[in-house]
Design goal:
- By secondary structure, this protein is an alpha/beta fold.
- The chain has two domains: 196 residues, 3-Layer(aba) Sandwich (Rossmann fold); 171 residues, 3-Layer(aba) Sandwich (Rossmann fold), CATH 3.40.50.12580.
- 40% of the residues lie in helices and 14% in strands.
- The protein has a seven-stranded parallel β-sheet, sandwiched between helices.
Length: 394
């Protein structure tokens, strides 16, 4: 067994021991603890425990501003760069603390963008939920962190499974019959704030992660690194940026941020390698004029604002073999922009978009309209809240 696997197993055993100890304590003093204002009728919200910039943050903010009577608290590490914007509400729980464990055991509602994201160790608690040991009793709400388009391995119990669009909803019902009664097409919480604003002359490159690189120590031998690093140093890209007065930001997935120091560019004045700590992803999406991505569901957010997208899928075959199998969404048939596999194709397509004043083509706009429907009245947070309330009356 590899050393990192042994370390992970030891850490999980430590978390399990801590959880069992606190669980026994809570069961002994449950009535007294529930009377405490901290834990009475508690709703907890989280993302991954160290961030607040997705559906979790948006829905927490909505609850604090519109339903102040609810005892809502947010789980986050106090060292997180996002801590201050949560702390302004004065309702935080330190990630990994004893209070964190007590809260998840006693909470009436458990809300997260990731399945079991409100726990101190997602994989461990998903396993406990699967084997029905020491299960959490609160209503489990999965807000999602992006519209699901591929086939994923989902097994944990859920009381409410939020869907972001009609086609996704139909796919989820068909693919995950165990969640049939839990899936509700409310729309994603963060879409309430995705507004069309005047954009900067900014191109955003935001690729998703690769499962086979999760435990890699050196990313430089892999195509994933080479393709993007070559793009950041391509003379034709630099010429396009200079000619049109644009900047380019490279902001890879959270799981790939650990490799950011390996990337470089010879034109740091117009090509930025963006750290997670320095940029808010929602602001980036709202402010950017063009998105270049691969398989990341973040393109749905960009399309929602009717802005142009290019899919750079240089490793399509390997991605499908090692990560997610294609679901209902075919990029060439259903996509909201052109699919390219070569850097040269990408540059040609980018040039076309820039010559068209960064406007999205009508045929792609029609696809977007068909996918999302009428978005003139968006109150997704209201819909999610009402679905949670229904859980206690059905």
């Amino acid at each position: 067994m590899k050393i990192w696997k042994i370390k992970r197993r030891i850490y999980q055993l430590y978390i399990l021991f801590k959880y069992i100890t606190i669980w026994l304590f809570v069961k002994m003093f449950e009535k007294k603890l529930i009377q405490n204002s901290k834990y009475k009728n508690l709703w907890i919200v989280s993302e991954r425990g160290n961030d607040a910039r997705d559906n979790g943050y948006v829905f927490f903010k909505y609850l604090k501003e519109n339903h102040k009577d609810i005892n809502t608290r947010y789980i986050i590490n106090s060292k997180s760069v996002d801590y201050k914007k949560i702390a302004q509400y004065g309702e935080t729980i330190e990630y990994g603390s004893i209070e964190h464990y007590i809260a998840i055991i006693l909470a009436k509602v458990l809300i997260s963008t990731h399945i079991m994201g409100y726990t101190p160790q997602m994989n461990l608690f998903m396993y406990l939920d699967k084997v029905k040991k020491l299960k959490l009793k609160g209503k489990k709400v999965f807000l999602q962190h992006g519209i699901i388009k591929d086939k994923m391995n989902l097994k944990s119990s859920l009381d409410l499974f939020v869907s972001g669009a009609e086609r996704e909803y139909s796919f989820l019902i068909e693919t995950y019959p165990q969640y049939r009664s839990s899936i509700k097409n409310t729309g994603l919480a963060r879409y309430d704030f995705l507004k069309q604003e005047e954009c900067k002359k900014q191109i955003l490159i935001m690729p998703t992660w690769r499962l086979y690189l999760s435990d890699c120590k050196d990313i430089t031998p892999y195509d994933y690194f080479r393709c993007y690093n070559d793009l950041l140093n391509d003379d034709n890209i630099i010429e396009l940026l200079d000619k049109n007065g644009y900047e380019l930001l490279f902001y890879p997935h959270y799981e790939m941020q650990k490799f950011l120091g390996k990337y470089n560019t010879k034109r740091p004045d117009i090509i930025k390698i963006a750290k997670f700590e320095d940029y808010d992803v929602q602001r980036l999406l709202i402010e950017s004029s063009i998105l270049i991505t691969d398989f990341s569901s973040v393109f749905f957010d960009f399309a929602y604002m009717r802005k142009p997208i290019i899919y750079y899928q240089f490793d399509e075959e390997k991605y499908r073999e090692t990560q997610y199998q294609e679901g209902y969404f075919d990029y060439r048939r259903d996509g909201f922009g052109r699919v390219v596999k070569q850097r040269e194709e990408l540059i040609v397509e980018l040039d076309k978009i820039l010559k068209n004043n960064s406007c999205i083509q009508d045929d792609y706009k029609r696809r977007i309209d068909g996918f999302f429907g009428n978005k003139s009245i968006v109150k997704n947070c209201d819909k999610i809240y009402n679905e949670i309330i229904k859980l206690f009356y059905n």
